[in-house]
User: Fold this.
Amino acid sequence: EQAIKDIFTNRKFGIFVHWGLYSMLGGVWKDKKTPYIAEWIMKRSRIPAKEYEQLAEKFNPSAFDPAGWIETVARAGARYFVFTAKHHDGFAMYRSKCNRYNVIDASGFNIDPIEALADQCRKRDIKFCLYYSQDQDWHHPHGTGNDWDFDPEKKDFSIYFEEKVKPQVTELLSNYGPIGLIWFDTPVQISRRHSKELFELVHRLQPDCLVNGRLGHGIGDYGQTEDNDIPAGGTGQAWEVPATMNDSWGYKTHDRNWKSPQLLLNQLIEVISKGGNYLLNIGPDGIGRIPTQSIQSAAYIGSWLKDNARA
Ligand code: JFZ
Assistant:
């Protein structure tokens, strides 16, 4: 109740960040530009896991600036922040002790982005939250979605769930202080029993951490609309609209279809006036730079809020 009240009554507006190995590709693999959302490039281009893994070795985001990123979030007037701890590619963007395929152990980079971002959020009273792909995992032999390296017939979701999902969600909820909400996504294979178990695990570790509506089987603490989709409202339930500034979540070099700052502000006002929360995405590039358009839109929204909305 308190948690719902905090994020869905008081905070209302969040910034989402999709950042991972896919950001290094910007939607381009071997000179071929993917027409799809850029964080899906491993699957769309059927990149062998062994080859995709090599991106980790080259991961060295010299422009990663946690204070600057959260400055942008604060400037936008956003009051919560959701970061991709692990997307469908299976790569953990934090120090994971239970799986070596993570930013500390598999790359030369020695900063834990989650630790750094959580610290910055705490300093500015921005609620720190995480995205975790609990079902699709294209790197784990038993995760969902990779049928070019691993035979789906031979998969056992429970193995992946026990050796990766539960331990990683446990780490994430144990090592970084209070987490406002955890954003699960694209339930496909996950059974009701597994969804329920994960829901209970989250609440056992952090009773105040909310679970979004994409864990699977209708389990969760609040509703999720389709991406960029704004419902009529009036349900009395907490709901959230995830939205992008262009047509991709992960950084995509050739996506120039940026929504104008005015349009994004209109969306935010429409969603919030109908009772929802607005979660607006930014996709920094592989070295950690936030696209100029995103910085400008964030500043535009924030200055309007400052002038027109009373806290
Ligand atoms: C998912 C992810 O596959 C995608 O990469 C991104 O992280 C996005 C935020 O979430 O994509 C979805 C999931 C659900 C819907 C649309 C895209 N939906 O319900 O319309």
The radius of gyration is 18 Å. The mean pLDDT is 96. The pocket of JFZ is lined by residues 37, 39-40, 185-186, 226-227, 242, 249 (CB under 6 Å). The first helix runs from residue 2 to 11.
